[in-house]
TrEMBL record:
GO cellular component, one term: plasma membrane
PROSITE patterns: ABC_TM1
Protein name: Nickel import system permease protein NikB
Transmembrane intervals: 9-29, 102-125, 137-160, 172-191, 238-259, 279-302
Membrane-protein topology: Multi-pass membrane protein
NCBIfam families for the chain: nickel_nikB, Opp2B
Organism of this sequence: Terribacillus aidingensis
InterPro entries hit by this protein: BPD_transp_1_N (IPR045621), MetI-like (IPR000515), MetI-like_sf (IPR035906), Nickel_NikB (IPR014156), Opp2B (IPR050045)
Length: 314
């Protein structure tokens, strides 16, 4: 088990280095000159001499490999450079906004799990029943409605018409309800379908038949065996979506004026704030890798056979 975990952690390092290389390379291939972007964000009319001086200050006159190595070393120290707009370290700017995004992501993830697990499980064991049809309808709606439109619908009904929740901002739990539901709704549709399909497949497995012939109670079979194995694809989906939740809340944060990383990233794009854009992309890659690592550990706890399979690999 320890060997399995160590292998997973070791594989993250080269993958993240490749992610840094791709991000760093795409920024250099971009027609936007970081030096020009800096003076544009500062609303300064730069001369050729100032541009050349700034390029030397940013290290843009160095060979590509040396720039990449310097970037990797700086990132290892959580140094993503200085924002062109605020003239503050990018990591400090991210650290001040990250708690709001994490709060929104965890709340929406909790809502998605609470709703999708019982709904998908009941839909799987009661095929073509009421819960099954309800889950299909919910999945169809969740996959069809864009997040920004759903957010505006919730604002219209629950904020404007019923005056139950605030329209925008943060501060109380009421501010968190509508953006969390908006972000969780497509996840509920996805996880419900994944769990429903997995439950129906596992009900056809021989271990369920053997458990029934041994006289094990039905609720024990469903809870301790079927659900524990059937939930594996859903957990994998959670790991895949964790990076999206932490860094992909751009639309939801814009709709509800949520002071998180999403709005910060949008402002960086409009201002051509290259260090912020690069940091955001690398943060998304890190969140994705971390999510998959967490999923691997959870899967290992649910199914210890994964560790044994890993030792059999060459």
């Amino acid at each position: 088990m320890v060997t399995f975990i160590i292998k997973r952690i070791i594989t993250i390092v080269p993958i993240y280095l490749i992610a840094i290389l791709i991000t760093f390379g795409m920024i250099h291939l971009s027609p936007v000159d970081p030096a020009e972007a800096y003076f544009t964000a500062a609303h300064v009319q730069a001369t050729d001499q100032l541009l050349e001086q700034k390029r030397q200050e940013l290290g843009l006159d160095q060979p590509f490999l040396l720039q990449y190595i310097d970037t990797v070393l700086n990132i290892s120290q959580f140094d993503f450079g200085t924002s062109y707009v605020t003239n503050k370290p990018v990591w400090d700017e991210i650290a001040t906004r990250m708690p709001a995004t994490i709060q929104l992501a965890l709340c929406s993830l909790l809502i998605a799990i609470i709703v999708s697990v019982p709904l998908g499980f009941l839909a799987g064991i009661k095929r073509n029943g009421v819960m099954d049809h309800a889950s299909r309808f919910l999945s169809f709606i969740g996959a069809s409605i864009p997040s920004f439109w759903l957010g505006y619908l919730l604002i219209f009904f629950f904020s404007v018409k019923l005056d139950l929740f605030p329209v925008e901002g943060t501060g109380t739990w009421k501010h968190l309800v509508l953006p969390s539901i908006t972000l969780a709704f497509p996840l509920i549709a996805l996880y419900t379908r994944l769990l429903r399909t997995s439950v129906m497949e596992n009900l056809q497995e021989t271990y369920v038949l053997f458990a029934r012939t041994r006289g094990i109670r039905e609720y024990s079979i469903m809870g301790k065996h079927v659900l524990r194995i059937a939930i594996s694809p859903m957990i994998t989906g959670l790991g895949m979506n964790l990076g999206h939740l932490l860094t992909g809340t751009i639309i939801v944060e814009a709709v509800f004026s949520w002071p998180g990383l999403g709005r910060f990233f949008i402002d960086a794009i409009f201002n051509r704030d290259v260090p912020v854009i690069q940091a955001y992309v690398l943060l998304a890659a890190g969140a994705f890798l971390l999510g998959n690592l967490i999923v691997d550990l959870i899967q290992l706890y649910i199914d210890p056979r994964i560790s044994r399979k890993g030792r059999q690999l060459p």
